[in-house]
Amino acid sequence: MSEMRSLLSRYAAIAIAAAAMSSAALAAPTVIFQADFEASVAESPTSLANINLGTPVGSWIGFDETRSLGSTLPSTGIHVNSASTGKGFIQDRNADTSAAFSLDANFSQPAVLADGLTVTFKCAPRRTGANKPCTFEGKDASGAVSFAVRFQTFAGSIEYFEWYNGSAWAPTGTGTDETGFMDIINSDNLETITLTLGASGYTFDYVPGLDQAGAAAPATNAPYTKSGLTYVGAPTQITKITMSGNTQTGVVLDDFIVTALGGASVGDWDK
What we know:
mainly beta; eight-stranded antiparallel β-sheet; globular; 2 helices; 16 strands
């Protein structure tokens, strides 16, 4: 009788474990931030409320509504792309290049790194010339930084993507050449960045925009992956991503999506 109870107990334990594995396997990715700006009104300058109209999941804070437009247009605001098939957001330097910027993409709920997290967005520099970076930092509720990646611009139209290893910025790959520099929004010409985050580190994936084909050396325009990137400190959660730039920085942004418990392609919903 005791042997039968022991056998039944083992079967029960196996069934419970199998059910748990099945549940985990079926867990669907949860979108905890999404900004495609499609519901926003095309206007420049614009307001925080209008930016958040185009952010159906999560919200932005920190946008300076009093910021002047750049001396060369288009500048800060919501813009219709060149094919009139979608909208994007420009955060630009101000007229006298006197003020940096910083705004937060706040998630609808915290993301636990051990469960897996995917961050995908499209971007491109708005301004040419050296040292006009735009930085994206993952942070927890206390503001502690978990990861930091950025594009950094150089003379002409050369740019590099870099990651912060805790003590210095290091390249994720070779130089790229963003030839559009966004005189007008075109989502197809933006570069797609995907960060796949886990408990102990993350992977950086780069896909160039369509306008970058055939760029001159030393630029390279092939998609690439950089794995094994480490966090700053020992984070366990992320609640927001801070996008910031110096007094010279301009950035074009579109199709920003963050998913917990797995990943989603930006192509799933960008239009």
